[in-house]
Amino acid sequence: MQYIMESERKPMRSKRIFLLLMTALLALSMVLSGCKSQTATDTIKIGSVHPLTGSMAYEGQAMVNAQKIAIDKINAEGGINGRFLELVAKDSLGTSSGAANAALKLTNSGVVALTGTYTSSSAQVVSRTAEKTRIPLVVTVASSDNLLSNGYRYTFRVQPSVSVFSQNFLKYLSYFKTDDMETVAFIYENSNYGAGISEYITDHIDETGLRIVGMLSYPATTSTMSSEVTKLAALDPDLLVPIGYYSDQNLFMKEVLERGIQFKKIVGCANGAFSDAKFLRTYGTQVDGIYDINYRYNPNSEEAQYMLETYREVYGEDIPVHAIYGYESIMVVADALKRCKNPDDPEELRDAIAASEIYEHVLPQGVIKFDEKGENINSAGVLVEIRDGKHIIVFPEEYADHDEVQK
Amino acid sequence: MKTKKVEQGTLLVLLLMAVIYPFLSDRYMLSVGISVLLMALLGQSWNIMSGYAGQFSFGHAAFFGLGAYASSILYVDHGVSPWIGMIAGMAVAALVGVLIGFLSFRYKLRGDFFALVTLAFAEILRVLFNNTKALKAATGILIPYKDVWSEFQFANDRIFYFILLAMVIAATIFIGLMSRRKFGVCLIAIKENQEAAGSLGVPVLKYKLLAMAISAAIAAMAGTFYAQYYGFIDPTVVFSAAISVEAIVPCIIGGAGTLGGPLLGALIIVPLKELSNNLFEGVNGVNMIIYGVLIVLFVVFCRDGIYGTVIRRLKGARS
Amino acid sequence: MSLQGLQSLLDGILMGGVYALAALGLSLIFGVLKITNFAHGAMMTVGMYVVFALGNDLGLNPYLALPFAMVLMFLIGFLIQRFPIHYIEHAPTHNQLLLTLGMAYILENVLLVIFTPNYQTLTVKGFEKAWRIGSLTFAPAKLIAFGVVIIVTGCVYYLLYMTNTGKSIRASAQNETGAKLMGINVRNIRAIAFGIGAVCTGIAGGLLTPIMSIYPTLGETFQLKCFVITVLGGMGNLWGALVSGLIIGVVESLSGYYLGGSWSEMVIYGIFILILFLRPTGLFGRGNRREN
Fold first, then answer.
1. pLDDT tens digits along A121-171
2. Which residues, at least 6 apart from B20, have a Cβ–Cβ distance to it below 8 Å?
3. Could you give the ipTM of this predicted complex?
4. Which of B278, B279, B290, B296 to mutate to test the interface with A (most CBs of A within 10 A)?
């Protein structure tokens, strides 16, 4: 019984200390969050809102890593009219309120522009924040079609949206479509991005002459893809189109390879796994012959080579393709800043971004230029083939890895 | 009497702070303030059902999401003002709440089994909304960006803040008044010992369902506010377990079953979370570790919540 | 049933074995110790990363790495129970839930700090191809997991029902004061029980490492499923958990095959709600129903 008494008394004593500690912490928090951080005026700050914890942490972190490389490059070249850039990255916690608070914290600490946010729901919230605070937002990755449909003045998107990816798919089809190809099946994760792309394509399937035999959707958090694989093996479509994130599509291919199922042709669309370097490291040449329409760098660009090598050097892995848009988002902001008379004026910066015409960039597309909605008019994905365990751009012609293609 | 005075005093001080706050704060601070109030409102909603009546819900996202979706679909698809949509959402959520409650109580579910049922219902709604095209499926709903009173849209976040504050005050007063009446006494009786309360003639089922309906309606109100303020909803955002957790956290930290508990809890935990997020910029994960540690410490050392602990101390001092 | 249906059934049974193992630890912690443990998924992830680290950095076969994971998981479980769970054993469910959720945040983010949030894949030599019987295929890693779950369930059953420690665990779960009066060190016994639960959870995580690519929050996706299985099998009923794990695996696989993966979640939660309403003591009626 004495033991019971003891265990009950102990927390009482520490409880008082704890309460005291909490009060002190609270007071501190009030003070700290109350005082505005004094901004040193010699650097130009760019804010970055991405999920750095939670289930999207890898994607968010890669984005920030790529952004840092861009910042370092600009600073090494002398900065913006003699002033250096500084990246301030904040965790959006993957939630709407987290993203809003992070964005406002950044605008408070004097950033001239925001970048972000990887998920579409956060991007929607941050673009509204940008509109209210009149600070321009350059979207790194958020593919939702309706992102710019509210007519926001301060939001710009470099990356291809869901419908652009889908149009790319329909356009590039001519490259990989064979005469005997008749049936197509989709396997896609059921969020806005996977479902969005597959629905857009199926709405336009008549143009392709293909017949849909299967539309299989699954939640991205799934722990098994066996029944999907079984079903697809039985359907045996002439063309299989998988759309999803890294971990679920990796699981899918793992089960396909394990069972030795030979699909006639696999063409991913913005597939999180197929274009990833880890995917090739895991499966090597086993996945040869798979195509993917995805983000990519321009293989003919020297700057892209610099980006690839620096990323590999600094972070010890190949740059994940979505992070290329993190890099380019900084370049877009920097390019606009250079054209500003007063780089500290977000309004002037907004106009400068809107007037962007960037010819030298790392993306596989023409000039980066925004329409009145803020959409990059030339945004596009490219068709990548896995050949000899390597990613090779095969289409469109002007971005193809010619040396590799001819081999 | 002393506890009552403390209670009233605390609420008054909180109210005063809340009214002055937006005039002293910048946009970021205001946004944090809105996060605090939103959590407080969700907490207050959870409080009446779980804190007072003792029916532990882990699925408040269900009601929150229904509120957000009802007003947003009515607004975007049918041009109905979100103010009216909010009422509709509250009604829908209350109905679903009563339905879940009726089924659960009919089959005598209690404790964590009841919590798991509410969690499962929230998940079912998430899957349902995510896969139903008529409900916009996974695309979600984008709220138009305007500055129109009648459409619950303001360019000035301060107005949003005061509307949310009014909601929190209304909910708090409502719960405060209810808890003083027979209703409140009966809820506490049900929480303490349901069988005894029933044998004394308390209409247990009716009161439990009423508590659930009120709770669900308040959560739905928070949902509508969320949609209008943040401007975008999709099933994974509004039906997520994270929302259900947000409803519980302030109550446990502040004190479940007390009127001021959820308010105090939200006021403490949100700034602390923001603080750890700001202090540990650049070392990812540490912010959430600190948040986790704070929660663990609060639950271990402040079992009745801060408010509850203070009240108990006062009561203890009297007796 | 078509050949594909049969293959789905088979896949469901194999995956069900993994689920059962994942739920076994929860059945102990939730069913016997009565702790509503929302850190269960995170504990599973710890198991995954221990096996991954040993397999990737030291080149150890993941199945040989399991014993190390078990020892570590026991220690983690023991410590988690001694502090902080010990302090909230008699607290209301919501306090337990919030505390374990806090623990989950801590565990997940410690993993994030140590291992980075990158997706990690561990391949086992010789397991690249599925084994076949006729036209049916078996994923080797899942088959091994299936074997392990039966052994582990047997071991835990033996431990719980045939040894003194097990008797003490069950005694202190049923009547704490009585157990104390009998001279049982309840605090240690419960910590040991939690440790055993953590070991089962860790094994489940470790066996998943060769099956999926892992990341710090992966365990969350198993959390609710494990609760479903535990309740379905009856609180604290180990063999019940095993069978209901298989049931959930099969239901998921077949509904995935016939209705589509998006709806299979819904079927599982639907079954869960029905079970809670109609048979709250679990399918096998042996579990004890929990009152508040």
1. 999 999 999 999 999 999 999 989 989 999 999 999 999 999 999 999 999
2. none
3. 0.90
4. B278
